Amino acid sequence: MFLILPSLVHLNLPGVPGYIEDPQQVPDGVLDFKPEDDIPRRIERQIPSANVTLADFARRGGSSPIYSLAAMGSLATIAQTSKSDFDIWVCVKKEEFTPEKIEGLAVKLKEIEK
């Protein structure tokens, strides 16, 4: 799941966790995000309802206020165990968000978290 997490934040498509029907309520992807070629296959393996292609990534993220995702915690350290959790920081340019997009992003991230 960790490998597809940035894609879930980036995309807003039906069948993908975190989908928000009104595109005016979510930011336009992650700035300059470019997935590996096998990411659509990995997403569909984890989330059978998703129908994702590489072309879906190209349509988003051109001028997004989301400029970075960062993994925090014991992830990929010697302290990590099978019971470890991790946090993802979503770094944004808040001044470029409308109140609707701030709320929409919060809803999207909560849905992805499930």
Sequence-ordered SSE layout with sheet pairings:
Layout: H1 5-10, H2 39-46, H3 54-58, E1 66-72, E2 87-92, H4 99-113
The biggest beta sheet reads: 2 strands, antiparallel
Helix/strand order, N-terminal first? HHHEEH
Strand order of the largest sheet: 1-2
Number of helices: 4
- Helix percent reads 25-40%
Q: Which band does the percent of strand residues land in?
A: 5-15%
Which keywords apply here?
single chain, 114 residues, alpha+beta, two-stranded antiparallel ribbon, 4 helices, 30% helix, 11% strand
Explain what this protein looks like in three dimensions:
This protein has 114 residues and is α+β, with helices and mostly antiparallel strands. The chain has one domain (2-113). The chain is 30% helix and 11% strand. The protein is built from 4 helices and 2 strands; from the N terminus they run αααββα. It has helices at residues 5-10, 39-46, 54-58, 99-113; strands at 66-72, 87-92. The protein has a two-stranded antiparallel sheet with strand order 1-2. The radius of gyration is 14 Å and the shape is globular. It starts with a helix and ends with a helix.
Task: Briefly summarize what is shown.
It contains four helices and two strands; from the N terminus they run αααββα. With 114 residues, the chain is of the alpha+beta class. The chain has one domain.
